[in-house]
Each structure stands twice: as C-alpha cells, then as structure tokens.
Amino acid sequence: MGTDVLRRLSDHEDLDGVRRWLDENPPHVIADELARMDAVSAMVPFRLLPKDRALAVFEELEPVDQQQLLMGLRDQAFGDLVEAMDPDDRARMLHEAPAKVARRVLAGLSPDEQRMTAALLGYPEGSVGRVMTPEAVTLPRHLTAGQALEVVRERGAGAETVYTLPVVDGERRLVGVTGLRELFLAPAGRPVAELTDTGVARVRATESAEDAARLMRETNLLGLPVVDSEDRLVGLLTIDDAVEVIEAADTEDAARQSGADPWPGHYMFASVWQLARSRAVWLLLLIVAATLTVNVLQIFEATLEEVTALALFIPLLVGTGGNAGAQAATATVRALAVGEVRGSDLLRVVWRECRVGLLLGAMLAAVGMVVGTVLVGGDIALVVAVSLVIICSWAATVGGVMPLLAKRLRIDPAVVSAPMVTTLVDASGLIIYFLTARAVLGV
Predict the structure, then answer these.
(1) Closest CA to 117 of 126, 208, 108
(2) 318 to 41, 293, 325, 374, 395: CA distances (angstroms)
(3) Which domains does the chain have, with CATH numbers?
(4) At what angle do helices 39-47 and 15-24 cross, to 10 degrees?
(5) Which positions ≥6 away from 256 have C-beta within 8 Å?
(6) 120-133 residue pLDDT tens
(7) pLDDT (tens digit, 9 = 90+) per residue, 230-255?
(8) What is the CA radius of gyration of the chain?
(9) Under 8 Å between Cβ of 285 and 416
(10) What is the residue-wise DSSP string for 141-156?
C-alpha cells in the first residue's frame, strides 16, 4: 500500500503529501519503496529528503538502485552524497557500477576518501577487505582509560563505530580490542592494556567475507578486527556489514539451489527479461541432463512392454527419489555454509545420509507395498517397495555428497543445486527400478 501512496502522491505532484509520507516513515521503509519505483519516479521523493535522511536512505538501497538514483542527481548533490558515504558502502556500490559511474564517483571524492575507497577496491572480490571499514578508532596500548576516552571523543565522529576499539602497538600491529563500555566504567588511570582482550578473533583482509561474517555471528562480536599479512590493523568488519554479507550469501545460495542465477536489485523492479535470463541457462542444462531419463526408458523398453504395470509407478519413484536427493543436498549446503560440515567429513556424511535414506525408504516402502498390492498385485508391489528403499538410500547419499565434492573442487556448493541432483537421481532411479524388476520378476 505504501508504494501505491508514494507513487500516487509523486504522480500527482503533491509535494506536501510526499514530504509528510517521508517524515512518517523510517529510512529502511523509504528505501524499500523507492526500490519498487522506476528511477525517474523515485527521484522526486528522494530529492525532497534532507541531506542526512537522504544519506541514510541511500545506504539502505542495493547497489543497482543506488546507481540509478545517482545518475539522476546534479553534480553538487551527486558529490555531496558519495562523499558522505562510508568507504565500505561506497566500495560495495562501485564494485557493481558501470565504468562511467565509477569514474564520476571517484573523480568527485576528496583525496582522503578517494584513497580509502581505492584501497578497499584493491582487495580481492569476495574478501573481507572489500567490505570492512578502514575508519576505526585505534588506541595505543600505553594509554590510560581516561586518555583513551579523549581519543574516542576526538576521532569518534569520523569513525563508523566506537563500540569496538582495536588496541595496537607502536607499529600498528593488533594487540587486541577493548570496548567503550570497559573504558567508561574503568578508573581514569587504569592502563588500557589491562582492559584489552588479547584473545579476540581476527581475520586477514584477503580471507572470505562470508567466512568472516559467520565468525562474527558465532563469536557474538560487534566488530571483527581485520589485519594484513604482518598482523597490522587495516580495518573492522562491523555487524551491519556482516549481516549484509550473510544475507547476500544466503540469497545467492537460495537462487542456486532453485536452479537459477541471482539477479541484482529488487525483485519487484527487476524486468521480466532479467528474471527469465537468470533461470534460462539452468533450465537448458537441466533439459540436457533430463535426456538421460529418456535414454533409460529406451533401454528398458522391452521390460516395459512385457510388464506394462511397471509404468504406473515411474512418476512415484522418480518424484520420491528426486525429493529425497533435494532434501539431502539442501541440508548439506546449509551445513557447509554455517560451518557444521567440512570437506574432511565426506565419509561421515556418506554414512549418515545412507542410513537416513534407508530409514526413509523403509517407511515409504511399507506404504508402497500396501498401495501396490491393492492396485496391481503383490509381485509389482514388492518391486516398488524394494526400489523405494534402494532409491531413497542412493538419492540421499548423492544429495549429501555432491555439495562436498563441489567444495573440494572449489566450486560453490550451491551450484550443485537441488534441481541438478534431482535430475541425476531421476535417471539412476529408473535404472534401479528396472533392474529390481528384472531380478524380482525374472523378465
């Protein structure tokens, strides 16, 4: 409803109404509504926002939406907005921006902001260095708590956070971290070294941003120190950026597991062509893989002609096997993502999923035996029951193993998506079914 109201107010040039709506809603709601509008329509309410509110709204937008708004701003407004952005947010936007936008942004920055942004963009794609903030308040370890609070007062306004305060030695090597709470509650003369947690987790700037973000979640940190190869502090990964990294990773995994490529920007503003293109490649690959099923049916055509009742249960077996494999694949991809499973756990996962599949197959076989006996008789029912046990066990094992093998081959496990596992299990499940029929029925 909010989008309809905002768009209607903008279309009718009711600027007072637009201002009232903007005043009544927080930045994240405004950003979501602007993302649902086309770039031209979104410019009207965005230009009516005060500078501080405009920046807060702008940083809530996805990079693709940010770029569209920027292109509609005049040079002065453009420069003020990108200059006020945090360096990590600016680097995130520029990573996905066309060269024309990137050049315009960098050219309009002050030397200090340009230097920080260029430094972040110099780290590998997907690394924590790309998403960290270099604007951290660092404390020399020889200070007292009172002196440290003075440093925070002097430098805190230019930092993204003051709740996590890295403590460094004379060569800027990370000693540990302390917090604003610890400094505030400590006697003014107490040494910072005594308030420093020297065992705090830290990551290299070239390490995976997703791994660093999940480490933050596991350790309940508000800020994770990021260091270079010589253990010198280069920045902090803040909790808001960590949440965005995890959200982006989970969104990409969800798309991959459904057999599609992730698309940039808001779903409601993405074009039909973008959505179709993100899914088309995978569907074409799955069609090719599905030809395996056709080939299997051709190979066992004589068996089907002799016992036509076998054809009745093909959809049931194919669907059940595919679903069992998809469940296992989804569970393994999720376990890999949160660190519950490692590549070295391959054999343990095989043994676990094989047993899970056997148990599921046995439960389904009991139902299949009853239904098959009523419909087509005991012999065919036995074939279906035995096939269900074997297929479920095989499908669960394949679904659990493929993401782990992909991880070892340095392929995104989510690429080995549920549709791909399902398609492969369909063909192999039919082979199991017909071989079981030949063994049981002697055909």
Answers:
(1) 108
(2) 49, 10, 11, 21, 10
(3) 2-125 (1.25.60.10), 139-255 (3.10.580.10), 272-441 (1.10.357.20)
(4) 80
(5) 262, 412, 414, 415, 417
(6) 988 998 899 999 99
(7) 999 999 999 989 998 988 888 777 76
(8) 29
(9) no
(10) TT-BHHHHHHHHHHHG
